[in-house]
Amino acid sequence: MTTAEGYPNLKFVVLAGGVGGAKLVDGLSQVLAPENLAIITNTGDDFQHFGLTICPDVDTIMYTLGGEANADTGWGRSEESWRVFEEISRLDGPSWFKLGDLDLAAHLVRSELLSKGCTLTQATAHLAISFSVPNSLLPMSDQPAPTLIESDQGLLSFQTWFVEMAWQPVVKQVRLPDEIKASKQVVNALSVADVVVLAPSNPFVSIDPILNVYPIREMISDIPELVIGVSPIVGGKAIKGPAAKMMAELGMEATAAAVASYYDSLLDVFVFDNLDVAVSFSEGIVFHQTNTIMNNLYDRRALASHIVDLALELIRS
Q1: I want to staple 96 with a disulfide (CB 3.0 to 4.6 A). Which of 17, 112, 147, 164 is the partner?
Q2: What predicted TM-score, i.e. pTM, was given to this entire model?
């Protein structure tokens, strides 16, 4: 397959969260040289649990890039054990959020580093090195930026809604915090970006929290030659997670076209799946149809290669 070797200075930045984002990032990491790929991860779903800082999206991407992700769930560690979690349950502690023994070690180390004055970016870099992640893995901000869900059952923290309540309460609005600033590492990565990719992650609770961080949206609008969005909706459904359900509850059709329309002015290119009806509603956007379902490592690499080749073609034209 074609790689970006013919264009060695092309810099990609991916905005990602969740399992779909992690899969595409994994594919891109196989196609691009490490110095040509930076990943900005959502931290809106971070929270405190047992006094520890838990960063689910950061960890999902870190474990995936490090070859340690649980292939069955897409989240958590491979070859995990659950003795601590089982004992928490036996002691009648809060067991709604599953922490595996290996996963717990990462949270302990991160929380220790933060307690000693490290930023979240620095703590993430330390862990990423330990997992042999070759790419720049950047939390969207060093400030806490919790996503809240306004629902038919009241205002809920994201993890309460997503995990404890299994994303069943009807979503009325997603609330994002004000005055959150990007780290200097994120700003530096975007300042040299040629291509920004919005991964096939949930637009409302994975991508929007990143875009909400100043000045990420503004930089994406001004700097890169191309902004490529990849649809998380295939055939009217989300491959994993609540994106389609949320779209219906927020008054949108659960379609790839609706996702493209939602991002609209940010996009130069929109990639959607072969199973979907052809999308084309804006003369300013290139719509491109291909297989976006990533069932295995080959699919991840194939989609990533396709996106890189498409970017090269459009930039060179």
Answers
A1: 164
A2: 0.95
